[in-house]
Every structure is written in C-alpha cells, then in structure tokens.
C-alpha cells in the first residue's frame, strides 16, 4: 500500500536507504553514504513529496520528489526487489508531476535500465567531484493527452 511518509517512518526509511544505496553503489565507499544520511533525514524527507510502500506492516520502499519535480530518492528494500514496488511508486509520482528529473550514476546499470523502461531520457551528465564518478541526468515528461 502506498501512503504518505509519516514522521515515525524516518528511522525505517533512513535504514532502508543506507542499506539499499550502499548495495546499489559498490563503487562508492560506504562512508560517503553514511556522511550523506543527515541530508536525507533532515532535508530530503521533511521537505519533499514523499511516499512509502508498506506491505503487511513492513516498509518496503519509498520515493521523494522535491518541489522542482526532482526525484531525490527512490529505493526499494533488497528483500522486495522485482516485485513491482518501484513501478508502483514511480506511477504514483507520475500522476502527481507532469515532469520528473533525477540523477543516476552511470555505473548503476540496474537503475539505468529501470529508468529507461519508465520512459526517462538522458538530458545531461557531469562528474561528481566528491566521488569522481560520472552522473547521468534523466528526465521524464508526461505525454500530451
């Protein structure tokens, strides 16, 4: 069930994020993600349009979209991969926003495949100065009716 993020979800969401992002980015030091956690907790979660997926009382995934239609986070628990949760969360966001943007590391091939299937297109790229890795900027636009 998709629902708005609640304040009492913060601990579970940050734990899910730290585990998922570390597994999804083995080419980046886990310390980098640990240092980034306060930004997620203190900025991203409270200031974004955030939704969670919950199954039988277990938080299985979440998405955060900023006011600028920027997806700052979309993460699914590794125990629930390939069960359509990411598709459902993305579809929920697409109903709310006519355009979405996001950034993904070029080396994160699984995420790139997912976003391509979701209709995102490459609009730019840059090298992250902190990690040294190439980041792709992707965009999705709602088709005119």
TrEMBL record:
Domain of life: Bacteria
InterPro entries per the UniProt record, alphabetical: Acyl_CoA_acyltransferase, GNAT_dom
Keyword Cell wall biogenesis/degradation in record: no
Domain N-acetyltransferase positions: 1-141
Gene Ontology molecular functions: acyltransferase activity, transferring groups other than amino-acyl groups
Alphabetic keyword roster: Acyltransferase, Transferase
Name of this chain's protein: Putative acetyltransferase
């Amino acid at each position: 069930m998709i629902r708005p993020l609640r304040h009492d979800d913060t601990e579970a969401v940050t734990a899910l994020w730290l585990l998922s992002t570390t597994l999804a980015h083995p080419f980046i030091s886990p310390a980098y993600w640990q240092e980034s956690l306060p930004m997620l907790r203190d900025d991203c979660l409270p200031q974004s349009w955030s939704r969670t997926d919950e199954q039988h009382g277990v938080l299985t995934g979440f998405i955060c979209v900023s006011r600028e239609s920027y997806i700052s986070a979309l993460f699914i628990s590794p125990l629930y991969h390939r069960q359509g949760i990411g598709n459902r969360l993305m579809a929920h966001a697409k109903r709310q926003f006519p355009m979405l943007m996001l950034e993904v590391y070029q080396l994160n091939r699984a995420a790139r495949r997912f976003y391509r299937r979701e209709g995102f297109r490459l609009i730019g790229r840059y090298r992250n100065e902190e990690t040294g890795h190439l980041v792709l900027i992707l965009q999705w636009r709602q088709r005119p009716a």
